[in-house]
Specification:
This protein has helices at 15-24, 29-47, 55-67, 114-121, 164-171, 188-194, 228-238, 256-261, 284-295, 297-300, 314-337, 343-354, 357-378, 417-423, 454-468, and strands spanning 52-53, 82-87, 124-130, 150-151, 154-158, 177-182, 197-200, 220-225, 270-273, 303-306, 383-387, 403-404, 407-408, 428-436, 442-449. By secondary structure, it is of the alpha/beta class. The protein starts with 14 loop residues before the first helix and ends in a 15-residue tail after the last helix. The protein has a single domain (7-468), classed as Amidase signature (AS) enzymes.
Protein backbone atom coordinates (compact mmCIF):
# COMPACT_ATOMS: atom_id res chain seq x y z
CA UNK A 1 0.00 0.00 0.00
CA UNK A 2 1.18 3.51 -0.74
CA UNK A 3 2.26 5.72 2.14
CA UNK A 4 -0.42 8.36 2.68
CA UNK A 5 2.24 10.57 4.25
CA UNK A 6 4.32 10.58 1.05
CA UNK A 7 2.69 13.04 -1.35
CA UNK A 8 4.50 11.66 -4.38
CA UNK A 9 3.07 8.19 -3.70
CA UNK A 10 -0.56 9.13 -3.05
CA UNK A 11 -1.63 8.17 -6.57
CA UNK A 12 -0.77 4.55 -5.74
CA UNK A 13 -3.44 4.35 -3.03
CA UNK A 14 -6.49 2.31 -3.92
CA UNK A 15 -9.68 4.32 -4.04
CA UNK A 16 -11.00 2.32 -1.08
CA UNK A 17 -7.94 3.21 1.03
CA UNK A 18 -8.01 6.83 -0.12
CA UNK A 19 -11.68 7.18 0.84
CA UNK A 20 -11.00 5.61 4.23
CA UNK A 21 -8.24 8.16 4.87
CA UNK A 22 -10.46 10.99 3.63
CA UNK A 23 -13.32 9.97 5.90
CA UNK A 24 -10.96 9.85 8.87
CA UNK A 25 -9.37 13.17 7.97
CA UNK A 26 -5.93 11.55 7.64
CA UNK A 27 -5.49 13.02 4.16
CA UNK A 28 -7.28 15.98 2.61
CA UNK A 29 -9.14 16.43 -0.67
CA UNK A 30 -6.67 19.18 -1.55
CA UNK A 31 -3.74 16.77 -1.20
CA UNK A 32 -5.38 14.25 -3.49
CA UNK A 33 -6.28 16.87 -6.09
CA UNK A 34 -2.65 18.00 -6.18
CA UNK A 35 -1.42 14.40 -6.40
CA UNK A 36 -3.83 13.76 -9.27
CA UNK A 37 -2.80 16.93 -11.09
CA UNK A 38 0.87 16.00 -10.76
CA UNK A 39 0.28 12.50 -12.06
CA UNK A 40 -1.73 13.78 -15.03
CA UNK A 41 1.08 16.17 -15.89
CA UNK A 42 3.66 13.38 -15.61
CA UNK A 43 1.84 10.81 -17.75
CA UNK A 44 -0.77 12.28 -20.05
CA UNK A 45 1.63 13.60 -22.65
CA UNK A 46 2.27 9.98 -23.62
CA UNK A 47 -1.35 8.85 -23.29
CA UNK A 48 -3.90 11.60 -24.07
CA UNK A 49 -6.45 10.19 -21.62
CA UNK A 50 -7.74 13.49 -20.22
CA UNK A 51 -7.54 16.14 -22.97
CA UNK A 52 -9.83 18.55 -21.11
CA UNK A 53 -8.83 19.41 -17.55
CA UNK A 54 -10.59 21.49 -14.90
CA UNK A 55 -7.93 21.62 -12.20
CA UNK A 56 -8.91 25.00 -10.74
CA UNK A 57 -12.54 23.89 -10.54
CA UNK A 58 -11.34 20.73 -8.75
CA UNK A 59 -9.26 22.74 -6.30
CA UNK A 60 -12.23 24.96 -5.50
CA UNK A 61 -14.42 21.91 -4.93
CA UNK A 62 -11.82 20.37 -2.62
CA UNK A 63 -11.68 23.57 -0.58
CA UNK A 64 -15.49 23.63 -0.28
CA UNK A 65 -15.57 20.07 0.99
CA UNK A 66 -12.99 20.91 3.65
CA UNK A 67 -14.73 24.15 4.61
CA UNK A 68 -18.08 22.41 4.97
CA UNK A 69 -16.66 19.67 7.16
CA UNK A 70 -17.78 17.02 4.69
CA UNK A 71 -14.80 14.79 5.38
CA UNK A 72 -16.64 13.53 8.47
CA UNK A 73 -19.44 11.81 6.55
CA UNK A 74 -19.50 8.03 6.86
CA UNK A 75 -22.41 6.87 4.67
CA UNK A 76 -21.60 4.36 1.88
CA UNK A 77 -22.06 6.89 -0.92
CA UNK A 78 -19.62 9.45 0.50
CA UNK A 79 -16.28 9.65 -1.34
CA UNK A 80 -14.90 12.45 0.79
CA UNK A 81 -13.16 14.45 -1.92
CA UNK A 82 -11.80 11.76 -4.24
CA UNK A 83 -10.59 12.87 -7.72
CA UNK A 84 -12.32 11.20 -10.69
CA UNK A 85 -12.57 11.57 -14.45
CA UNK A 86 -15.85 11.95 -16.36
CA UNK A 87 -16.30 10.58 -19.86
CA UNK A 88 -16.59 13.27 -22.52
CA UNK A 89 -20.08 12.11 -23.49
CA UNK A 90 -21.43 13.39 -20.16
CA UNK A 91 -21.99 17.11 -19.47
CA UNK A 92 -20.15 18.74 -16.57
CA UNK A 93 -21.28 22.24 -15.70
CA UNK A 94 -18.79 24.86 -16.85
CA UNK A 95 -16.40 22.31 -18.37
CA UNK A 96 -15.93 21.83 -22.11
CA UNK A 97 -17.89 18.77 -23.24
CA UNK A 98 -17.34 17.79 -26.88
CA UNK A 99 -18.73 14.26 -27.40
CA UNK A 100 -15.51 13.86 -29.41
CA UNK A 101 -17.08 15.84 -32.26
CA UNK A 102 -15.82 18.94 -34.08
CA UNK A 103 -19.42 20.16 -33.96
CA UNK A 104 -19.11 20.56 -30.18
CA UNK A 105 -15.41 21.37 -29.91
CA UNK A 106 -16.12 24.53 -27.91
CA UNK A 107 -19.33 23.50 -26.17
CA UNK A 108 -19.56 24.37 -22.46
CA UNK A 109 -22.74 23.07 -20.79
CA UNK A 110 -24.65 25.15 -18.26
CA UNK A 111 -25.74 22.09 -16.29
CA UNK A 112 -24.17 18.76 -15.38
CA UNK A 113 -25.75 15.40 -16.07
CA UNK A 114 -27.68 14.19 -13.02
CA UNK A 115 -25.12 11.42 -12.54
CA UNK A 116 -22.38 14.04 -12.18
CA UNK A 117 -24.54 16.14 -9.87
CA UNK A 118 -25.02 13.12 -7.63
CA UNK A 119 -21.34 12.19 -7.69
CA UNK A 120 -20.20 15.71 -6.83
CA UNK A 121 -22.77 15.87 -4.02
CA UNK A 122 -21.26 12.62 -2.75
CA UNK A 123 -17.75 14.01 -2.63
CA UNK A 124 -16.34 13.08 -6.04
CA UNK A 125 -14.08 15.79 -7.50
CA UNK A 126 -13.96 16.02 -11.29
CA UNK A 127 -10.41 16.50 -12.57
CA UNK A 128 -11.19 16.40 -16.28
CA UNK A 129 -13.02 14.84 -19.20
CA UNK A 130 -11.80 11.50 -20.56
CA UNK A 131 -11.37 11.00 -24.29
CA UNK A 132 -13.89 9.04 -26.34
CA UNK A 133 -14.59 8.26 -30.00
CA UNK A 134 -16.93 10.66 -31.77
CA UNK A 135 -20.32 10.35 -30.02
CA UNK A 136 -19.03 7.15 -28.44
CA UNK A 137 -19.27 5.28 -31.75
CA UNK A 138 -16.56 2.63 -31.87
CA UNK A 139 -14.26 0.66 -29.60
CA UNK A 140 -10.98 2.44 -30.31
CA UNK A 141 -10.57 5.88 -28.81
CA UNK A 142 -9.75 8.58 -31.35
CA UNK A 143 -11.53 11.63 -32.73
CA UNK A 144 -10.91 14.76 -34.80
CA UNK A 145 -10.95 17.05 -31.77
CA UNK A 146 -8.31 15.45 -29.53
CA UNK A 147 -6.69 12.64 -31.52
CA UNK A 148 -5.78 9.15 -30.28
CA UNK A 149 -5.66 7.86 -26.72
CA UNK A 150 -2.92 5.29 -26.16
CA UNK A 151 -2.69 2.16 -24.05
CA UNK A 152 -0.39 2.56 -21.01
CA UNK A 153 0.74 -1.07 -21.29
CA UNK A 154 2.08 -0.34 -24.77
CA UNK A 155 1.62 3.14 -26.18
CA UNK A 156 1.58 1.77 -29.74
CA UNK A 157 -1.64 -0.11 -28.94
CA UNK A 158 -5.31 0.81 -28.72
CA UNK A 159 -6.85 1.30 -25.30
CA UNK A 160 -10.25 0.17 -26.57
CA UNK A 161 -13.37 2.25 -26.31
CA UNK A 162 -15.52 4.01 -26.12
CA UNK A 163 -14.57 4.65 -22.47
CA UNK A 164 -10.92 4.48 -23.48
CA UNK A 165 -9.71 7.65 -21.83
CA UNK A 166 -11.49 6.59 -18.65
CA UNK A 167 -9.70 3.23 -18.48
CA UNK A 168 -6.33 4.81 -19.25
CA UNK A 169 -6.78 7.49 -16.59
CA UNK A 170 -7.22 4.70 -14.04
CA UNK A 171 -4.43 2.44 -15.25
CA UNK A 172 -1.94 5.31 -15.26
CA UNK A 173 -2.94 6.48 -11.77
CA UNK A 174 -4.23 9.87 -12.91
CA UNK A 175 -7.47 9.51 -10.95
CA UNK A 176 -8.94 6.96 -8.54
CA UNK A 177 -12.27 6.36 -10.27
CA UNK A 178 -13.68 7.02 -13.73
CA UNK A 179 -17.17 7.18 -15.18
CA UNK A 180 -17.91 5.30 -18.35
CA UNK A 181 -20.88 4.40 -20.49
CA UNK A 182 -21.78 1.25 -22.37
CA UNK A 183 -23.97 0.52 -25.37
CA UNK A 184 -22.14 -2.39 -26.96
CA UNK A 185 -19.26 -2.95 -24.56
CA UNK A 186 -17.78 0.48 -23.91
CA UNK A 187 -17.25 -0.01 -20.16
CA UNK A 188 -15.95 -3.56 -20.51
CA UNK A 189 -13.70 -3.45 -23.59
CA UNK A 190 -11.31 -0.68 -22.43
CA UNK A 191 -11.25 -2.22 -18.95
CA UNK A 192 -10.01 -5.44 -20.55
CA UNK A 193 -7.44 -3.62 -22.70
CA UNK A 194 -6.05 -1.60 -19.77
CA UNK A 195 -6.26 -4.29 -17.05
CA UNK A 196 -8.73 -2.42 -14.87
CA UNK A 197 -12.33 -3.16 -13.88
CA UNK A 198 -15.41 -1.96 -15.74
CA UNK A 199 -18.99 -2.76 -14.78
CA UNK A 200 -21.97 -2.49 -17.09
CA UNK A 201 -24.83 -2.26 -14.59
CA UNK A 202 -28.40 -3.21 -15.33
CA UNK A 203 -30.52 -0.47 -16.92
CA UNK A 204 -31.72 1.98 -14.28
CA UNK A 205 -29.02 1.19 -11.74
CA UNK A 206 -27.24 4.48 -12.47
CA UNK A 207 -29.57 7.40 -13.10
CA UNK A 208 -28.56 9.71 -15.94
CA UNK A 209 -29.99 12.53 -18.00
CA UNK A 210 -32.01 14.52 -18.71
CA UNK A 211 -31.95 12.25 -21.77
CA UNK A 212 -33.62 12.46 -25.18
CA UNK A 213 -34.53 8.77 -24.92
CA UNK A 214 -35.11 8.25 -21.18
CA UNK A 215 -36.73 4.82 -21.59
CA UNK A 216 -33.84 3.35 -23.57
CA UNK A 217 -32.28 0.29 -21.94
CA UNK A 218 -29.30 -0.30 -24.23
CA UNK A 219 -27.15 2.68 -23.22
CA UNK A 220 -26.12 2.77 -19.55
CA UNK A 221 -23.62 4.71 -17.47
CA UNK A 222 -21.46 2.88 -14.99
CA UNK A 223 -18.34 2.75 -12.83
CA UNK A 224 -14.74 1.90 -13.61
CA UNK A 225 -12.07 1.30 -10.99
CA UNK A 226 -8.65 -0.22 -10.54
CA UNK A 227 -10.22 -3.27 -8.88
CA UNK A 228 -13.59 -4.68 -7.86
CA UNK A 229 -13.78 -2.98 -4.46
CA UNK A 230 -13.00 0.44 -5.92
CA UNK A 231 -15.62 -0.14 -8.61
CA UNK A 232 -18.22 -1.18 -6.03
CA UNK A 233 -17.48 1.88 -3.91
CA UNK A 234 -17.98 4.08 -6.96
CA UNK A 235 -21.27 2.38 -7.78
CA UNK A 236 -22.48 3.15 -4.25
CA UNK A 237 -21.81 6.83 -4.95
CA UNK A 238 -23.56 6.67 -8.35
CA UNK A 239 -26.69 4.64 -7.73
CA UNK A 240 -30.17 5.59 -6.60
CA UNK A 241 -33.51 6.66 -8.02
CA UNK A 242 -33.89 10.12 -9.56
CA UNK A 243 -37.05 11.91 -10.62
CA UNK A 244 -35.50 12.89 -13.97
CA UNK A 245 -34.75 9.28 -14.96
CA UNK A 246 -38.00 7.30 -15.27
CA UNK A 247 -36.34 3.85 -15.18
CA UNK A 248 -33.90 4.60 -12.34
CA UNK A 249 -33.75 2.19 -9.41
CA UNK A 250 -33.45 2.78 -5.69
CA UNK A 251 -30.13 1.94 -4.06
CA UNK A 252 -30.07 -1.60 -2.64
CA UNK A 253 -30.23 -2.25 1.09
CA UNK A 254 -26.75 -3.80 1.03
CA UNK A 255 -24.10 -1.38 -0.26
CA UNK A 256 -22.09 -2.76 -3.15
CA UNK A 257 -18.78 -2.19 -1.34
CA UNK A 258 -20.08 -4.23 1.59
CA UNK A 259 -21.01 -7.04 -0.81
CA UNK A 260 -17.43 -7.07 -2.09
CA UNK A 261 -15.93 -6.96 1.39
CA UNK A 262 -18.16 -9.93 2.28
CA UNK A 263 -17.59 -11.56 -1.09
CA UNK A 264 -17.62 -15.14 0.16
CA UNK A 265 -21.30 -14.66 1.03
CA UNK A 266 -21.97 -14.01 -2.66
CA UNK A 267 -19.66 -16.72 -4.00
CA UNK A 268 -21.11 -18.60 -6.99
CA UNK A 269 -21.98 -22.28 -6.77
CA UNK A 270 -22.43 -23.05 -10.46
CA UNK A 271 -21.01 -21.16 -13.43
CA UNK A 272 -20.75 -21.80 -17.15
CA UNK A 273 -17.85 -20.80 -19.37
CA UNK A 274 -18.18 -20.25 -23.09
CA UNK A 275 -15.08 -19.37 -25.13
CA UNK A 276 -17.12 -17.66 -27.85
CA UNK A 277 -20.83 -17.63 -26.86
CA UNK A 278 -21.27 -20.02 -29.77
CA UNK A 279 -21.14 -17.17 -32.28
CA UNK A 280 -17.80 -15.37 -32.45
CA UNK A 281 -14.21 -16.03 -33.57
CA UNK A 282 -11.75 -15.59 -30.70
CA UNK A 283 -7.97 -15.20 -30.86
CA UNK A 284 -6.37 -18.42 -29.62
CA UNK A 285 -4.23 -16.76 -26.95
CA UNK A 286 -7.20 -14.82 -25.58
CA UNK A 287 -9.25 -18.03 -25.49
CA UNK A 288 -6.48 -19.88 -23.64
CA UNK A 289 -6.04 -17.14 -21.02
CA UNK A 290 -9.77 -16.80 -20.38
CA UNK A 291 -10.35 -20.55 -20.19
CA UNK A 292 -7.62 -20.85 -17.57
CA UNK A 293 -9.06 -17.92 -15.61
CA UNK A 294 -12.56 -19.42 -15.69
CA UNK A 295 -11.27 -22.65 -14.18
CA UNK A 296 -10.09 -20.66 -11.15
CA UNK A 297 -13.72 -20.57 -10.06
CA UNK A 298 -13.27 -24.20 -9.01
CA UNK A 299 -10.90 -23.01 -6.28
CA UNK A 300 -13.63 -20.62 -5.14
CA UNK A 301 -15.90 -23.63 -4.70
CA UNK A 302 -17.97 -23.36 -7.86
CA UNK A 303 -18.85 -26.05 -10.34
CA UNK A 304 -17.53 -24.90 -13.73
CA UNK A 305 -19.16 -26.30 -16.85
CA UNK A 306 -18.91 -25.54 -20.52
CA UNK A 307 -21.76 -23.94 -22.42
CA UNK A 308 -24.30 -21.19 -22.08
CA UNK A 309 -27.56 -19.96 -23.56
CA UNK A 310 -28.02 -19.60 -27.30
CA UNK A 311 -27.23 -16.19 -28.79
CA UNK A 312 -28.38 -17.16 -32.26
CA UNK A 313 -29.63 -14.09 -34.11
CA UNK A 314 -28.44 -11.66 -31.43
CA UNK A 315 -26.02 -9.84 -33.75
CA UNK A 316 -28.84 -8.85 -36.09
CA UNK A 317 -31.04 -7.83 -33.15
CA UNK A 318 -28.37 -5.52 -31.78
CA UNK A 319 -27.44 -4.01 -35.12
CA UNK A 320 -31.09 -3.19 -35.79
CA UNK A 321 -31.78 -1.64 -32.39
CA UNK A 322 -28.47 0.22 -32.33
CA UNK A 323 -29.26 1.70 -35.75
CA UNK A 324 -32.68 2.79 -34.48
CA UNK A 325 -31.00 4.65 -31.62
CA UNK A 326 -28.46 6.37 -33.85
CA UNK A 327 -31.05 7.45 -36.39
CA UNK A 328 -33.37 8.73 -33.65
CA UNK A 329 -30.64 10.81 -32.05
CA UNK A 330 -28.53 11.89 -35.03
CA UNK A 331 -30.73 12.00 -38.17
CA UNK A 332 -31.02 15.79 -38.09
CA UNK A 333 -27.27 16.06 -37.70
CA UNK A 334 -26.79 13.84 -40.75
CA UNK A 335 -29.07 16.08 -42.81
CA UNK A 336 -27.42 19.34 -41.78
CA UNK A 337 -23.77 18.46 -41.00
CA UNK A 338 -22.96 15.25 -42.82
CA UNK A 339 -19.53 16.66 -43.67
CA UNK A 340 -18.61 16.79 -39.97
CA UNK A 341 -19.45 13.15 -39.18
CA UNK A 342 -17.07 10.20 -39.43
CA UNK A 343 -17.95 7.46 -41.95
CA UNK A 344 -18.88 4.91 -39.31
CA UNK A 345 -21.48 7.25 -37.83
CA UNK A 346 -22.97 8.00 -41.23
CA UNK A 347 -23.27 4.27 -41.91
CA UNK A 348 -25.03 3.67 -38.58
CA UNK A 349 -27.50 6.54 -38.98
CA UNK A 350 -28.34 5.62 -42.56
CA UNK A 351 -28.86 2.00 -41.57
CA UNK A 352 -31.42 3.14 -39.01
CA UNK A 353 -33.21 5.44 -41.43
CA UNK A 354 -33.55 2.59 -43.93
CA UNK A 355 -35.22 0.22 -41.48
CA UNK A 356 -38.89 -0.69 -41.85
CA UNK A 357 -41.26 -0.90 -38.88
CA UNK A 358 -41.67 -4.66 -39.28
CA UNK A 359 -37.89 -5.11 -39.03
CA UNK A 360 -37.78 -3.11 -35.81
CA UNK A 361 -40.72 -5.03 -34.39
CA UNK A 362 -39.14 -8.36 -35.27
CA UNK A 363 -35.92 -7.33 -33.53
CA UNK A 364 -37.81 -6.41 -30.36
CA UNK A 365 -39.65 -9.74 -30.36
CA UNK A 366 -36.39 -11.62 -30.89
CA UNK A 367 -34.82 -9.66 -28.04
CA UNK A 368 -37.63 -10.80 -25.77
CA UNK A 369 -36.95 -14.42 -26.71
CA UNK A 370 -33.24 -13.93 -25.96
CA UNK A 371 -34.13 -12.52 -22.55
CA UNK A 372 -36.24 -15.59 -21.78
CA UNK A 373 -33.35 -17.86 -22.76
CA UNK A 374 -31.09 -15.96 -20.38
CA UNK A 375 -33.66 -16.20 -17.59
CA UNK A 376 -33.87 -19.96 -18.10
CA UNK A 377 -30.06 -20.20 -17.97
CA UNK A 378 -29.84 -18.19 -14.74
CA UNK A 379 -32.48 -20.36 -13.11
CA UNK A 380 -29.74 -23.02 -12.86
CA UNK A 381 -26.50 -20.99 -12.98
CA UNK A 382 -25.11 -18.11 -10.96
CA UNK A 383 -22.82 -16.67 -13.63
CA UNK A 384 -21.90 -16.85 -17.30
CA UNK A 385 -18.20 -16.40 -18.14
CA UNK A 386 -16.57 -15.57 -21.48
CA UNK A 387 -13.78 -13.40 -22.90
CA UNK A 388 -14.43 -9.66 -22.80
CA UNK A 389 -12.76 -8.97 -26.16
CA UNK A 390 -12.03 -11.45 -28.95
CA UNK A 391 -8.53 -10.07 -29.67
CA UNK A 392 -5.73 -8.51 -27.59
CA UNK A 393 -5.07 -4.75 -27.90
CA UNK A 394 -4.28 -3.91 -31.53
CA UNK A 395 -2.31 -1.16 -33.28
CA UNK A 396 -3.47 2.30 -32.23
CA UNK A 397 -3.70 3.43 -35.86
CA UNK A 398 -6.29 0.77 -36.77
CA UNK A 399 -9.84 2.11 -36.70
CA UNK A 400 -11.45 -1.24 -35.90
CA UNK A 401 -10.81 -4.98 -36.16
CA UNK A 402 -11.70 -6.26 -39.63
CA UNK A 403 -10.76 -9.96 -39.41
CA UNK A 404 -10.18 -12.65 -36.77
CA UNK A 405 -9.27 -16.27 -37.52
CA UNK A 406 -10.21 -15.79 -41.16
CA UNK A 407 -13.64 -14.37 -40.32
CA UNK A 408 -14.15 -10.95 -41.91
CA UNK A 409 -16.39 -8.36 -40.27
CA UNK A 410 -18.71 -6.30 -42.44
CA UNK A 411 -18.64 -3.14 -40.31
CA UNK A 412 -17.08 -1.38 -37.33
CA UNK A 413 -19.51 -2.90 -34.80
CA UNK A 414 -19.66 -6.65 -35.45
CA UNK A 415 -16.28 -7.47 -33.89
CA UNK A 416 -17.75 -6.35 -30.53
CA UNK A 417 -20.42 -9.03 -30.55
CA UNK A 418 -19.23 -10.89 -27.48
CA UNK A 419 -20.08 -7.85 -25.36
CA UNK A 420 -22.98 -6.30 -27.25
CA UNK A 421 -25.12 -9.44 -27.20
CA UNK A 422 -24.91 -9.24 -23.40
CA UNK A 423 -26.08 -5.62 -23.53
CA UNK A 424 -29.32 -6.81 -25.13
CA UNK A 425 -30.21 -8.90 -22.08
CA UNK A 426 -30.13 -6.20 -19.38
CA UNK A 427 -27.71 -8.33 -17.38
CA UNK A 428 -25.07 -7.01 -15.01
CA UNK A 429 -21.69 -7.64 -16.66
CA UNK A 430 -18.17 -6.87 -15.50
CA UNK A 431 -14.73 -7.17 -17.06
CA UNK A 432 -12.02 -8.24 -14.64
CA UNK A 433 -8.32 -8.80 -15.40
CA UNK A 434 -7.61 -12.39 -16.47
CA UNK A 435 -3.93 -12.21 -17.38
CA UNK A 436 -1.54 -11.09 -20.09
CA UNK A 437 -0.47 -12.27 -23.52
CA UNK A 438 3.11 -13.32 -24.22
CA UNK A 439 3.66 -9.73 -25.39
CA UNK A 440 2.51 -8.35 -22.04
CA UNK A 441 -0.88 -7.09 -23.22
CA UNK A 442 -3.89 -7.31 -20.88
CA UNK A 443 -6.78 -9.73 -21.34
CA UNK A 444 -10.08 -9.48 -19.47
CA UNK A 445 -12.67 -12.06 -18.45
CA UNK A 446 -16.32 -11.05 -18.77
CA UNK A 447 -18.46 -12.11 -15.80
CA UNK A 448 -22.21 -11.93 -16.42
CA UNK A 449 -24.91 -12.14 -13.76
CA UNK A 450 -28.69 -11.83 -14.01
CA UNK A 451 -30.34 -8.42 -14.32
CA UNK A 452 -29.94 -6.56 -11.03
CA UNK A 453 -27.10 -8.80 -9.84
CA UNK A 454 -24.34 -6.18 -9.71
CA UNK A 455 -23.35 -7.31 -6.21
CA UNK A 456 -22.94 -10.89 -7.39
CA UNK A 457 -20.81 -9.86 -10.37
CA UNK A 458 -18.64 -7.52 -8.31
CA UNK A 459 -18.10 -10.13 -5.59
CA UNK A 460 -17.14 -12.72 -8.22
CA UNK A 461 -14.64 -10.27 -9.72
CA UNK A 462 -13.14 -9.71 -6.28
CA UNK A 463 -12.84 -13.46 -5.71
CA UNK A 464 -11.15 -13.75 -9.10
CA UNK A 465 -8.65 -11.04 -8.18
CA UNK A 466 -7.57 -13.10 -5.20
CA UNK A 467 -7.20 -16.20 -7.36
CA UNK A 468 -5.32 -14.44 -10.16
CA UNK A 469 -2.98 -12.45 -7.92
CA UNK A 470 -3.38 -9.39 -10.14
CA UNK A 471 -4.56 -6.96 -7.48
CA UNK A 472 -2.31 -3.91 -7.23
CA UNK A 473 -0.71 -4.30 -10.67
CA UNK A 474 -1.95 -0.84 -11.63
CA UNK A 475 -1.24 2.04 -11.69
CA UNK A 476 1.66 1.84 -14.11
CA UNK A 477 3.87 4.32 -15.92
CA UNK A 478 3.23 4.47 -19.68
CA UNK A 479 5.27 1.83 -21.52
CA UNK A 480 6.58 2.61 -24.98
CA UNK A 481 7.51 -0.44 -27.09
CA UNK A 482 11.13 0.68 -27.31
CA UNK A 483 11.32 1.75 -23.68
Amino acid sequence: MADQNNASELYRLSAADAVTFLRKGEISPVELVEASAARIEATDGALNALPTLCIERARAHAERIMKNGGTGRRDPAWLGGLPISVKDLVPVEGVRTTWGSPLYADHVPARSDIMVERLEANGAIVMGKSNTPEFGAGASTFNEVFGKTRNPWNTDKSCGGSSGGAAVSLAAGQVWMATGSDLGGSLRIPASYCSVTGLRPSPGRVAHGPADLPYDTLMVDGPMGRDALDTALFLDAMCGAHVEDPISLAAPAEPFAQAVREKEKHAPKRVAYSPDLGEFPVDSEVAEICAAAAQRFQAIGAEVEDGGPSFKGAVDIFQTLRAVLFSAMKADMLRTRRDALKPELIWNIEKGLALQSDEIGAAEIARGKLYRRMAKFFANHDLLLCPTVIVPPFDVDIRYVEEVNGHKFDNYVDWLGITFVISLTGCAAISTPAGFTKDGLPVGLQIVGPPGAEARALAAAALMEEQMGLSGHVPIAPKSPGG
